[in-house]
Amino acid sequence: MTMRPRVLLAMDPATFALQFGPEELTRLAGLATLGDPIVVSGLDAVDPARLAETEVLITSWGCPPITAAQLNAAPRLRTVLHAAGSVRSLVPPDLHDRGVQVATAATMNAVPVAEYTLAAIILAGKRVLPLAQVGREQPVGWQNSFATRTLSNLGRTIGIVGFSTIGRKVLDLLRVLDTGSVLVADPFADPDLVRAAGAELLPLPEVLGRAEILSLHAPLLPSTHHLIGGAELALLPDGATLINTARGGIVDSAALLAECASGRLDAILDVTDPEPLPAGHPLLALPNVTVTPHLAGSLGSETRRLSHFALDGLAAYVAGEPLPGAVTPEASELSA
Ligand SMILES: NC(=O)C1=CN([C@@H]2O[C@H](COP(=O)(O)OP(=O)(O)OC[C@H]3O[C@@H](n4cnc5c(N)ncnc54)[C@H](O)[C@@H]3O)[C@@H](O)[C@H]2O)C=CC1
Ligand SMILES: O=C(O)C(=O)COP(=O)(O)O
């Protein structure tokens, strides 16, 4: 480790502009030895001599997956600081074996998604979004006959698929609601940890059979593609709401369309397959389906905090201290 390590930033220019203002650049220059340009989109474009001396790589959205050849060309690389969410598709799993530490701001990025999910759960419970749509098309006066539902104390069951970084944050937020029961489906989760988070770990079909609101928080992997297909949707109780902030490909869109078009299920979707849905897509026409443009994870005006994560990580690296947000080999998301 050197006092002012050679640092390279790999992310798309728009992400860089959102995260790094003058103050952040001054702090970066004080901690690092920087080349020119400071930021590149991907490592393919980097001069081999520059890559060969890079010790710390700061990445974010827009950096393509790092290949084994690029790693071989970067023998001095010691740390990857990912100022964004998951590193699963960014770095190869054998990075730990090469002695490279990886840290991610996924925990910070989980907060806005969990907040979106909590809002969606409450709105789903009240059926606010479909009823607002009905009200827009056919204004109605005050009525107490709408089938809205209260979450607290009435035994409502919420299903969470994925005891992931975001799934765990959602469970934290749900504690304030005092809901009926919260069920978790995750083949990798530890039942004791799920219980400590106020929920019960059950196989997916059992969660589906009981969840009046089902929220997806698993990553999209070959094993989770269409994890929620027609057979799984059919298990959900009548009137249930599916919330998807994870990845569109986890759900079979055609099967979801059929269930929502029949009015049996509602959906709140921040992610879709395809994404974005083309204009005129039938899901967009349904009053009981709400689609937002993949914004749940947006930190909005606080996006700059992601660069602070990277700069704090860089300062810790220089000081020889543990990296905040380190992905450890034992609990690595790379192994999930
Ligand atoms: N809408 C948005 O703006 C954002 C969406 N996301 C998405 O949210 C999802 C969750 O992200 P993170 O919490 O960071 O994930 P994560 O990387 O922490 O999730 C890993 C966990 O998923 C669980 N898992 C794996 N296979 C599973 C399966 N078959 N069923 C249930 N659980 C399974 C495992 O327990 C593993 O530990 C991802 O799909 C991610 O792409 C993430 C950030 C922003
Ligand atoms: O959904 C997104 O694109 C995000 O905001 C974060 O995704 P990631 O966890 O970085 O794959």
UniProtKB/TrEMBL annotation:
One Gene Ontology CC term in the entry: cytosol
Protein keywords: NAD, Oxidoreductase
Keyword NAD: yes
Pfam families (UniProt xref): 2-Hacid_dh_C
D-isomer specific 2-hydroxyacid dehydrogenase NAD-binding domain: residues covered: 141-296
EC code: 1.1.1.95
Region forming the signal peptide: none
InterPro entries per UniProt: D-isomer_2-hydroxyacid_DH (IPR050223), D-isomer_DH_NAD-bd (IPR006140), NAD(P)-bd_dom_sf (IPR036291)
Gene coding for it: serA_1
Gene3D superfamilies: NAD(P)-binding Rossmann-like Domain (3.40.50.720)
GO molecular function, one term: phosphoglycerate dehydrogenase activity
The protein's name: D-3-phosphoglycerate dehydrogenase
